[in-house]
């Protein structure tokens, strides 16, 4: 049959090189870009099948390797809600990517389709939106994905072009909600909701001076800087200067720049000079789904004051909490209240000082394993869920139910001629935040605009933000081992269950340190075991990490 022939054809066009082994890790398949075509083609088949299974709802494919070096590339799949592909399809993704020959691939697809109740070759439709970042292997891999998609009868591929990862996730989500989903629709949503914050919702006495308006953004020589250049003139109230914008001659993608570099190395990225000391700066990663802030502390060295994902999370959490409190404790004549469950989601990499800070402010904090797919899912359990990884990936999600309550509250308040009331304005701020922030996935551009809006609203400088709490000194190390899967963890990755003796050794080392905390886990994106240690001094954190790394080796 036609379907069989197409699958056999495409599989023989992209033979799997011997010795290749792909695993759908924390963020899809990743490897040297030149070796990725077979896996990307098969991800195309997978995405088309996923769409068929979900009655033709749009599914997404993003071709990127995020913060990894320019020679790498990768592929991941977005589900119709704009989130990561449902985890129970990952074992099939692995099997498909590693099918040794065309026949094996065909049999796998047929069997899986049968198990999942997917009828192939019938009158179904499927649509897959594709996006890629600026990597040189992107175009070639996009073609492999298209061929994979077209191998499923009835599937329709739409190339959305060169995009940030979160843009593509947003487009998939919007398309399935029946909202306009082009790039200009995305930009309009960001610009409009940002302007609403800045022009209508910031108290009048907090206009901000020139320095408060100035922001330098390190674009990691990736796609985020390119997009920011396109919209910055339309962003009222901030004056953005993009460095490492990816223009010819500015430097190499993610090399000595970008959010991962700044967060891990805690030094100034390439392209900054002593003139920038004291200015508020932000750094994106190569596909613009991570965001951190920093400030050059002095002209004499390259150290920075870092505001990582944990502190962005803290800013967002305080802002949302404050608006909810205004709505609920306002004592206004209207007297409407809106109880809402606010949940904060972190991973074990969150700095202990941030967790303490959030709890001290009466916030509910929960933990999940590393990886956005876990954090996002947890956040969805709340009326408002805020999640961030320390590395700067995170967002805020609002339940549909909460948003419709908010809508009717603001309708009532405005018709009661209470238009200018604090309660009404707080409701409008929450509404604008829900429109500004990308609810599909962490998005550095929308996150950056929300940070800027909140700093203006609070009249805070970078210094005020930095001083919310002081990070505990920490150290991250990578250990190369023969088989990283031999380490198995439990309790949101904070404890090792196998090998059984390792946790005891970690506990013993940790007990020797004041405020010591340490855990190890196999990376889901690199062939290493990661060690994280925290203590009251840098010397202790370093030595704790080193001695535990020694036990892992
Ligand atoms: P792994 O390699 O599984 O630690 C890394 C990051 C994650 C996440 C993914 C996807 C750390 C410690 N880990 O995962 O947070 O961002 O990459 O990009 O930063
Ligand atoms: Zn990224």
UniProtKB/TrEMBL annotation:
Positions of substrate binding: 389-391, 521-525, 530
Protein origin, superkingdom: Eukaryota
Chain ranges of the Alpha-D-phosphohexomutase C-terminal domain: 514-550
Entry's transmembrane regions: none
Domain Phosphoacetylglucosamine mutase AMG1 residues, every copy: 181-292, 308-460
GO molecular function, one term: phosphoacetylglucosamine mutase activity
One Pfam family linked to the record: AMG1_II
EC number of the protein: 5.4.2.3
Pathway this chain belongs to: Nucleotide-sugar biosynthesis; UDP-N-acetyl-alpha-D-glucosamine biosynthesis; N-acetyl-alpha-D-glucosamine 1-phosphate from alpha-D-glucosamine 6-phosphate (route I): step 2/2
Cofactor: Mg(2+)
Catalytic activity entry: N-acetyl-alpha-D-glucosamine 1-phosphate = N-acetyl-D-glucosamine 6-phosphate
Coiled-coil region(s): none
Active-site residues, as the UniProt record annotates them: 66 (phosphoserine intermediate)
GO terms for cellular component: chloroplast; mitochondrion
InterPro entries assigned to the protein according to its UniProt record, in alphabetical order: A-D-PHexomutase_a/b/a-I, A-D-PHexomutase_a/b/a-I/II/III, A-D-PHexomutase_C, A-D-PHexomutase_C_sf, A-D-PHexomutase_CS, AMG1_II, AMG1_III, PAGM
Keywords from the named record: Isomerase, Magnesium, Metal-binding, Phosphoprotein
CDD domains registered for this protein in UniProt: PGM3
Binding site for Mg(2+): 66, 285, 287, 289
A biological process from GO: UDP-N-acetylglucosamine biosynthetic process
Family: Belongs to the phosphohexose mutase family.
Function: Interconverts GlcNAc-6-P and GlcNAc-1-P.
Protein name as annotated: Phosphoacetylglucosamine mutase
Source organism of this protein record: Panicum hallii var. hallii
